[in-house]
Fold each of these.
Amino acid sequence: MSENPPRTELMGSSEFTNHHLGRTLEVRNLVKSFKVGSESFGKAERIKAVDDVSLFVPAGTTMGLVGESGSGKSTIARLICRLLEPDSGQVLVDGDEVTAGTKIPKGYARKVQIVFQDPTASLNPRWKVRRLVAEGIRVHGLRSRSETKERVAELVSLVGLPEHALDRYPHEFSGGQRQRIAIARALAVEPEVLVLDEPVSALDVSVQAQILVLLQELQAASGLTYLLIAHDLAVVERFCDEVAVIESGRIVEAGDPEIIHSRPEHPYTKALVEAHPVPDPHERTMYVHAQDKAEVAE
Amino acid sequence: MTKFVLKRLAHTVIVLLGVSVMVFFLIRYLPGDPLDVLFTQGSGDEVTAADDLAEGRRRFAEGIGMVGSLPSQYLNFLSEIVQGDLGTSIFRRIPVSTLIATTLPLTLQLAIAGQIVNILLSLPLGIVGALKQNSIWDRGGTAFALIGTAMPNFWQGIMLILIFAVWWPILPVSGVMDLGLSVEHITGIPIVDAFVTGNWPAFWSIIRHLILPAITLGASASLVRILRSSLLEVKHQDFMDAYRARGLRERSVTSHMMRNALPTTVVIFGIRLGAIIGGSVVVETVFAYQGMGWLLINAINQRDYPLIQGIVLTFTVFTVLANLLSDIVHGWLDPRVKVEAKT
């Protein structure tokens, strides 16, 4: 936390401030397996995508979840948002339990929101920004019609988009702007926890930083709790209070991002750190695929 | 939008020009000359002298513009079309435009009935297939559509006639309506005219005659696979999960899925619509349904040049217009297309 860049207080004067503080997010022994192959060919087997994962994210902080593609990190995001049903385990938001098999508590979707990786795919192309952002408010009956209109305009300016953006379609924006729309849409239902599923991976490097800064500013202003999923340790290191490294559905290492980056203990983490390109050519080592590296180390 | 439509209409003219060149020259290079049939020794009632025959043939050819070089004949043909004259049928001695005007409504009636069958079959099969992907319903629906597409129309038509008109005679074999019945001419489309004038015996007869050819045209359920795959494409987009994450009930999510899959399906339906009107040629022939397709086959057999030209151009106009219409509807359903058309 101390190493994070100073958070600007741009939104300090906004109405947004502190009117809904973030809550703790806790995941206990989450398990999810998928059937692979087809039964008719007699090859069906189950693969554990998430294998006994536990996480605790204190209110108003950011937990990074890092792993290669296929490591199960996106499955965890979907399990937390109940887009998938876990085989077993618990998800708790502010003490509200969402246990496998039980009915989802009412209003859960309001508490936990998700921002997807690719804003091109996550925004309905047939809707204008105004409707996209207002949808959540309408579904949960949060505000009256006129209040909704005001709120939507407020959210759009909060994420740094001009007012005329409201009457445009998603395809009229750049990737970074679209991700801003997706963030505004997630914030519209006044969530306490925001699951960020690789929110900058689909964006240009120059735009990545802008979106991360926006997310930091929003957190500073509102105290939201973040679970940031990434495959890039460098993104996580700058942004998170704590980092968990996931490999094949299991958390292999967790702790302070600085320490994990400078002194990784688990061979998989070491491989991840080394796989990241080094800007200085003199310090660069030969690129080896993270998985191979991990095997060699073992 | 107006600019877009005007631009497309200009394209239509170019397409028509190309088609007219092809049809005009190709049919004339086919072996067989219609005038040989008309002016051959012994073809008339009286035996005519060879000189008289040659003279008659020359005068006839002059009368229908079949003299001079082919390119100059083509230019004459073009200038007549521009004046709205498609020529006169060589064998029927009736203006081509009159023949088209009487047969086109029947073809439209049949094509629309076929598409109603297609949509009634495709909608449930496609939607269930996408919602319950890989279920027994999905596999069954896809298999049905595949079999329907794989079976040739003429064979399907003959089988239907065999089953429902011969072995188990509950439906008529062929024709538009029972002999002895007639409808007043109002719109030209018999089923509409019978309905408007309250001519119920004719109305039911027309419907009974439509059933088998309409099934033959529509039972391929050609939309099933398009509808299913465009629904599945939308189904796996992140914004469907975004709706769920926002707390929308599954029913609303499904309705959003349908609305987003609609543009693709409508466009492909529109593109096919033109082809379907052309595709009715085979079905009309099998069922002796006296529409434009049936007329075309007759005209080709007789090498009735003006009639072939007129019908082929009419089919072309319908295909191009169906494409234009589906593009306009696409722009109206999908905001991303509208902007592209503007710029």
Note: DSSP finds 15 helices and no strands in chain B.
Amino acid sequence: MGIRIALAGNPNCGKTTLFNALTGSNQFVGNWPGVTVEYKEGKYKGDKEVTIVDLPGIYSLSPYTLEEVVSRNYLIDEKPDAIINVIDGTNLERNLYLTTQIVELGIPVVIAINMMDVVEKNGDKIYAKKLSEEIGVPVIEISALKNRGLKEIVDAAVKAGKEANPQSPKHRFDGSVEHALAHIEELCLHNIDDENVQRWYSIKLFERDEKIQEKLGLSSDVIEHIEKDIKSCEKEMDDDSESIITGERYNYIGTIINGCVKKAAKGLTTSDKIDQIVTNRFLALPIFAVVMFIVYYVSVTTVGSWATDWANDGVFGDGWHLFAIGSKAYTEAADEYTANQLIVDGYDLIVEETGAEPTGEFEYPVEDEETAAVEYEKATLDDYEAAKAYVESNEEPDPANYGVWIPGIPVFVEAGLDAINCNDVVKGLILDGIVAGVGAVLGFVPQILVLFIFLAFLEACGYMARVAFIMDRIFRKFGLSGKSFIPMLIGTGCGIPGIMASRTIENDRDRKMTIMTTTFIPCGAKLPFIAMVAGAIFGGAAWVAPSAYFLGIFAIITSGIMLKKTKMFAGDPAPFVMELPAYHWPTVGNVLRSMWERGWSFIKKAGTIILLSTIVVWFCTFFGVVDGAFTMLEEDQIDHSILAAIGKALAWIFIPLGFGDWEATVASITGLVAKENIVGTLAIIYGASGDVYETMRSAFTNASGFAFLAFNLLCAPCFAAMGAIKREMNNTKWFWRAIGYQCGFAWVIGLIIYQVGKVFTGEGFTFGTIFGLAAICCLIYGLVRKDKYNK
Amino acid sequence: MRTLKDVNVGETVNVTKLNGEGAVKRRIMDMGITKGVEIYVRKIAPLGDPVEITVRGYELSVRKADAEMIVVE
């Protein structure tokens, strides 16, 4: 028969390190049913019959936080054979508070005093035997980090589990409390066999724990009766029942702890010294800025962007040069060839259009690949001759001739499909649907992993708690946590790791709010689109790009304030009392493991939605009806596609926003695959009838153009980011709430910009302006209305 | 009535009473801030809020709004 052992303890007590040390790679990580709280289970390395369950880090077994409810439900309902209560030896007093509650559950407990290496280094002394006598359970000194006492603790837990003879808690409350507890037990708990469990329930009922009242299905009569007992006790003790119990537990710990611990004379610890500098009044913000810069620079600008480019353009693109050897030489050669080719093409174009060769200096178009902007450059006839000679005497450079060229997966797959004469539909499905979809999932993984190394490090070393400490004042005004800063910062690079970074926020509401608002910040993929709108519609005005960022920040702030007051974010106000753990150097193994767990959960949970939606959009883009027959389309036949039909059907939604034509609608839809696709789609659609930018300028006014920009920046992010949202919300309802809110908010902002913008761009006051003003009023109402759900 | 919010950095005080109720109060008490406990105010965050305190031998960050519930002497 297998034995199940639960690990329980405070956050930062080294529980995860112990769990990793005990189970090695035999782990299963998931979620507790229906909630975002993580569930971890593993087999003990030394004995596969022993299963170890890692409970969330908790301070108490109160009914107020998700982690605590999950933990206590597991302990009461699933009844593991034994509990290892992990305790931070450097902070016995507060850690033992949870212990006093755990020993009341009627499950055998053994205590593991962790971080003994640090305790000894500090010169402190813990008398384990004395503590064991006081509490009435085995106490073993361990150090999970140094692999000390691990076998002993598991052996002790297995032994306790097999004996199945749970301790009776030695702690007794004040006389009048015990009196009330006895009454409660007699009144409604006598049918529970286990005396310990009886006592546990009676304490919870004494605390007026509504979740337990519900669970026991007590009638209102009984509850009223209990209430009388509680009231008389409260009157006697002059405090409310919960405070009486909590206070008594801490008092009890106070009485036993003096005999069990001897603290060395206290100087400043290393951690204290670090903290004096790191959260110093004057240095804190500069240091914070430097740390954030490093995180951003490495995980977004440099390593992260190389990793993403490599994964997207290399592995899931044409290919890449091994170790980048030859990459530079190839780029230079290719650039030179392209520059010459452009001159020759420009010359040919003039010949084609005018029927005559240019006689002197002529202009030729140069298109920017990212933004589809076209610029004209001048060339002389001599330039043309030189370019022509170059193009004729050189072949187009082939990357395979430089260094070690590794073709991308699509190239391999295409070659394979060609070899078996695969038909175009299947080939398209596999290449543009499936391979591109898998690429969209995996392309972001390297960057995510880079970021997760940082996050794991910052969390494990203790700085993450300080980030919340430093930034709390600003962010809590918008219903966010100080830790929301990191998701938002990373979100300027890419929303996917940004959303994933919200994992570090403990508070459920803060986290959900952060997930919902992070993608309002323009990410890297939105930049080409912003540049395109700026160039095509606003003549390259410099204010467009910054305005996109201001719009993002505005959206986060207003959303935070409005959402915080809605019913879905209502609930008991959670106070921000946060432990600032001592700084310590994390182990490489734990950092890497955390990185991998989170990265893998992205692939697993976000992958499906990304893959499926990419395939659906591919199908809608490349299939349609031409001349009465349903067929596969070429790229430039997008106006015949199913997507265009959908665009035409949905375009009316955007009429109030000024861009109610199918072109803009289709571009917005393809933007869901990846935001930079908006540029490509618009280039195809508008490019069919001449210059892309000119056609686009004629299709939009200033007001509708900016509304179009705003809508696409704020609405639902790309599928990959939606996948991340789905994974982090871990709840379908909340996922749709987030996407629905983002789209709705984007629509309202677009409406305001277009309808009110028209007044300022010379179109004057129209009927629609009233709606624009009404929308502003609604927004203001949402911001200032009284918060009736929270205090 | 003096609360934790009014305590200066570097001061040590004793908790005499906790106002408030429900989840907020319970959470504060769960973290070890109970009647009679000694609190040392270590520092204030660079932006003026929250405050960092030492209680029962460890460091805790408390918002001023919540600190207002903690009556001290």
Note: The first strand of chain B starts at residue 12 and ends at 18.
Amino acid sequence: MASHHEAIIREPLVTGENITYAKVTDDILKPVENMPNKAWWIGFTVASLGALLWVFAVSWTFWYGIGSWGLNKTVGWAWDITGFVWWVGIGHAGTLISAILLLFRQNWRNSINRSAEAMTIFAVICAASYIVCHMGRPWMAVYSLPLPNQYGSLWVNFNSPLIWDVFAISTYFSVSLLFWYTGLLPDLATIRDRASGIRRRIYSIASFGWTGSVKSWQRFETVCLILAGVSTPLVLSVHTIVSMDFATSLEPGWHTTIFPPYFVAGAIFSGFAMVQTLLLVVRKVLGLENYITMFHIESMNKIILVTGSIVGVAYLTEFFIAYYSGGEYEQYTFLNRFIGPYWWAGCMMYGCNVLMTQLMWFKKIRTNIAVSWVLSIVVNIGMWFERFVIIVISLHRDFIPSSWAMFYPTWIDVSIFIGSIGLFFTMFLLFIRVLPSIAMAEVKLLLKTSSEQAKKKLLAAGNLEPEQAEFYKESLTKFDSVELSEYKK
Amino acid sequence: MSSTKFILGLFDDPDVLLHGIDELNKKSIPIYDVYTPMPIHGIDDKLGIKPSRLGFAAFMFGILGGTTIFSIVYYTLVHDWPMNIGGKPAFAVPDFIPATFEWTVLFTAFGMTITFFFATHLFPGRAPRVMELRATDDRFVIAIDAKGNVPHEDITNILREAGAVEIKHNDRKYVSYE
């Protein structure tokens, strides 16, 4: 490992004094090896009540059919597909962090990839549940697979984006799960080797007998790299295909070629916002400030700014093309977002996604935890409204004014949505209770190069350009987990 | 006759571990295996372990997946039941790309990972064959088969001089069994 030297100007990825390999394990496994604290129990109680509401509302939908939703002849897709696209989009950040940032060798991903991937899996579960619900007769879901049947066989139509979606979402879910679980094996083995009794047996089964021998690590790294390589186009394809559910139709407001890149950027945007929402709380409650540092928070805020701005450019392009195309239906649809009965939804979409994110240009805002957290919620709200605007506002007034209608959600619509958030948080809270929320093996890789103490050694050894050392010390001032007094001359 | 089966050199730093491997190699003492809590690049070269061939497996599985779904699509939509959709050709290759792509990825990922589990003997319920419990936490462990090897004190001395923080003479190969 001759490549231990990292430029001093790079900010530390692990802060704190005396962080040894053992301390990394101890710190990260604290919530797993001890009884949860009060904050966890309160969160878990609220979230599982939400999940119960979800079970109830979904059962109600299965029993009475989707007539219990607020759909009508004009607006045939509403909160169901809005929720579906919202959740799938949220899932995208996990794969971006685990796959794309791995390919780009962005080491800061090492401390956030595990929880982001877990978030991906839970978000895709929520999304898939919407798809099954909106079929009305969920047992018919089997007909979306190309299985021989007694009608001919009548096969599925592989020309249809809806069938592509079946393949995309199922592949995405199963490959994400595989990637996440393979990455978990070394950490599960760590828990196993520290545990005793029944816990040891459970983690023993879960860790597949991992030992950390040279050959297994070598193969493990190959597998992770190739999984990252195939997941990268996969994640781009998933939201591309989701957008094609709309873009291949003739509906004004949907029928646009910009949808695939616009949806992918929006997905990463909303996904990072959700990662931010979760991790800002997790680092505080689990005391992981040394591993999820201000550098991580600021980096994620920068990605939110970039993707939010891409989304903003896509919005402008849409408006320009609507005007430039000369198509009156297209033009009306986009005007209707501001002057129609749903003007407030349009304002939420453009305001939250474009205007609010531009605040991230200011470093003071990017490095302020409370403001970042609020902004991440704002982005999540904005992105939900984006999907609502695209789906419902486009549908409710399209070609024939006599069939124009409004959409009003029923209490079942609302319950499924709130319930799905409860389901998501229930799964996430269980995850941080029983599995390491940070990839320990990967963080240990950073200790000798990118930790604050390694940098301190570099500073102590001298031989640095004074400007670079100053630059480094200056960059530490934003960290909330660094003892600044030690750097005073 | 000593009852020692394995000699373990425990290091607390990956660079010192690599130094230890070099020292053992210099003295031609065969290393059974090395256990580390995280991937350490360079060990495989020093131990003469060949690069992984999983990439080839991944590629073959990818080709298999793409071919499989493309054949299914061709059979169902072109051969078995071609549909007249506005007079357009039934063999509409661009439309077949998304499904083909997804199954290429699906087969690559699962085929390669299952091959990895199979080749490395990883499966749920496998009894962990652990020589040193801290090897998954904060110790970097060199394991040396004690049988028919140079005097054990020599190995101990080499490891100590190379910077091992602890040296164990284990009577059992694996400590993870009851």
Note: Chain A is about 70% helix and 0% strand.
Amino acid sequence: MSINKHKANINISTNTTSSTNINNNNKTVKKLLLVVVAMFGFGFALVPLYDVFCDITGLNGKTNDTAVAYTASSVDKTRTVKVQFITRNAKGIPWEFEPVINEINVHPGEMKLVSFYAKNNASHDIVGQAVPSVSPGLAANYFHKIECFCFTQQPLSAGKDIEMSLQFYVDLELPTDINTLTLSYTLYDITEKSS
Amino acid sequence: MTTDTLDNASTADSHHDSFGDNHDHKMTGIKRWLYTTNHKDIGTLYLWFAFIMFLTGGALAMVIRAELFQPGLQLVEPDFFNQLTTVHGLVMVFGAIMPAFTGFANWMLPMMLGAPDMALPRMNNWSFWILPFAFAILLGSFFMESGAPNFGWTFYAPLSTTYSNGSTAFFVFAVHIMGISSIMGAINIVVTIMNMRAPGMTYMKMPLFVWTFFITAYLLIAVMPVLAGVVTMLLTDTYFGTSFFDAAGGGDPVMFQHIFWFFGHPEVYIMILPAFGIVSTTIPAFSRKRLFGYSSMVYATSSIALLSFIVWAHHMFTTGMPLFGELFFMYCTMLIAVPTGVKVFNWVATMWRGSLTFETPMLFSIAFVILFTIGGFSGLMLAMTPVDFQYHDTYFVVAHFHYVLVTGSLFSIYAGAYFWLPKWTGHMYNDTLSKWHFWCSLISVNLLFFPMHFLGLAGMPRRIPDYALQFADFNKWVSIGGFAFGLSQLIFLAVVIKCIRGGEKAPAKPWDGAIGLEWTVASPAPYHTFSTPPSQQDIDNADQHGH
Amino acid sequence: MGKHKLTWLVLVSLFANSAWAETQLNLTKGVTAVSRDVYDLHMLVLYICTTIGVLVFGAMFWSIAFHRKSKGAKPADFHESTKVEVLWTAIPIVILIAMAVPATQTLIAMEDNENSDVTIQITGSQWKWHYKYFDQDIEYYSVLSTPRKQYQNQQETNVVKGKNYLLEVDKPLVIPVNKKVRFLITSDDVIHSWWVPAFAVKQDANPGFINEAWTRVEEPGVYRGQCAELCGKDHGFMPIVVEVKSAEDYDTWLNEQQQRIAAAASAEQASLSASMSKEELMQLGETTYTAHCSACHQPTGLGLPPAFPALKGSPVATTGSIKDHLDIVFNGKAGTGMQAYGKQLSLKEIAAVVTYERNAWGNDTGDLVQSADVKAVSGEE
């Protein structure tokens, strides 16, 4: 109560235009609160914006996460690009996970099929998820996956193994200073999240 | 800090408080401070809170330096060491520097603008009183089973999510409250400056001090919500199964750093722009000369603020950015040196052919200009991407930001505190003690932070509890400097307490070269000032811009 | 005060390489073309900053010395000058451009990862490094080899520390001299950062993503670095050691590794049929435990709860089945810091460490675990 009284005192004591002042204050506060809310939203908007940014620039070597159609008009036989495959298990997933071949030479525009071997060594069923990453990051935009086991989750029963395929081609537009391309898969245990 | 002054009407000459009887309701004891909506009371609360947090964060730093005094783990375990560095950073940034500046804003803005109070006094009360709760949660987590946050004040995911020690929820909650407090404080500052200026005080007549707080408040409003957003994502990632920053679920840990530093870089300027405002007040006062290049100072401050939004990724050069990204952020960062340089040149030009005296506020201001500039130089070195690969995450970076934040922001706070203590308390501070405070701080702070440059260049990573033997000599000196600097700050506590209790009576304007509306009211400043707006004559006299 | 610091700055630049050789004050020149470019750039900026500092602080101290009130100085009245202000905006821009040009050139060179001779996959893992040679079967963990008692000085303070205290590992990374070596860097858990100052290579290891870096070292030798990104408790205890060998020595080393792998495989086979005594198991178990487990679960077995649970009296190591215990050690535990040791330790070591955990610190279960039991859990035929 006394707070209100105090406040009133101040308002009286400002000057004769105190009511206009309060109106102005309220207006400004509302505008600023709007900015606050907008910036809070912007923080979250940065998530999709970041993805768009990554798509455009190939930042962090993110590749397409859904299948794309083969659209290359020809095969550029004059160029050869080395594509290397590496794998890594994140902590806590007891799978064997290896590329069947380590590297392959491709011509831009040429479609290739390679496979990866996985085996669940644990005594329980596990759902795995392979997360791809391409280096150099700029090449990610020119590496197109037509079919990939990384598009979906991979459930494997205890002790079972599987050969998983990846079909891809390298874009004809791949910048000429890129001659080696590395595709890495990190395997995660997502059993808990997927159930 | 201030004493009650019911006799203001008799001492203030430039204004007349016609509502003297309004003070009757003023409460006493703890209730006065809990319910206060008076900008001076709240400013006092902020300043004391900041100082207590400064001592708390300092105590944590003392343990860190004691552990690093010699190689080997003598006192603490590595995990606790990480908790110490994390909480030290958070307490100093959000508990000491930022509230101290808000304290200055509360005390000084209405008086400098010729306004009776802040525009939103009740919100002002709230924005202060939620702060102690935030820090109670943060510091209280030391005593929880999980321990305090141990992932660095930058809380990079996934160390702070999947691999955290369970303190993430406390941390997020505390940061949310700090954020809300800062946003409320900032809104109050903006509204006050926009709507409460005395009639006749145009924007370009405002003291530069007001300008820097105005721009800082806008920065706060723009980026604190982003911080709130990113800690919310952290919370849901840790406890509610989202995957913003978890690669397994399609997220990206590097995105965390982008969002964090989108907040974090403007945050750095939030902690230094008000410092520019303070020394732009003190240097002209003790040079007895107007501030050189007032308009260019305003523009330089604004352009630093704008640039701060497009340089965030210079904290992330080693995360694997594409070449053009590294180049873009390098060029933008280097560009910041230009407006910052303009400021330093302007301060030197203000002193040039002035009539200098060296009272304690001036000593701290001069030390600020030199040492902040050294921090700026190392900042420029860090901006060079190829070399940053060597400096990044070493003690060179630690040296850099402590030069900017301790000998920068903190020294400016001391300059401002000594400058306005007579206005706040009505007494002059003890000059001898204050000089001791200055010289002890100056010597020890350089012993503390300068050798860190060498440690970083020689290859000592930051945030390690133990180090290789070639770093031992410098670490010993750094620790000695640290203890000395910590002790020196107790002198300041003594000065302030002595000053509140008594001392030579301060006149309304104790500094002959000072200009500003705050000097037209009595010392100590009456509980209510400028209930009647100041005269145009007073406003023009206080104009830093010149004629 | 400021003057004093300036003198320091100047001294540093003058004596960086000669008088102060013992305690390193300046950035290393390193042993690669890139690291030397980086060093030159560092010195260039340092000199420019020092010069600007001397000029600006010089003017300031001139003012402090001669424009003081006590010397009767009267304040001048100027407070702006467009000419001067334009000048001190323009000159810094020119200086910055002069700095940006060499910086850009060096950066472009650093980012050119093409045409490498050797590729090595580097993985950061709490708190060790894993190296895997692309196209070779060679892969191994590289772990701090400084004995715990040298750095755990809470009780004993008089332990003598070795020459390379905290900068030594059991198995260093080995690379050939004068060859372009490409690093593909990633992480198993949190973010780490692989840094060797002498190569001017520092690259973050991000979980789920790969980063590239490269080096071409010109002098054989041993180079040391550390993890540069806070990665949890033992961030300060995961050093990097790189041994750079001549072409012949490198080939010899590769051969040795191949032979060692073959020998280890046959030893594994042999251990399957062998049965170890409790003493043998406990002894090997204790050594293995100290090297791989005690950082988290502590030598006392009490752990550091809640992140790192106690093993002493824990159901896992007492009443629980041996199979489940082996499963956790062999395969790790998802969502926690517990990693899979199946690939890091031999069958024999795992058998020993599990035996040790089930019998030490009063967990006196009396259980004995043999290599064959571990093999059964591993899921491999």
Note: Confidence is low (pLDDT under 50) at residues 13-21 of chain C.
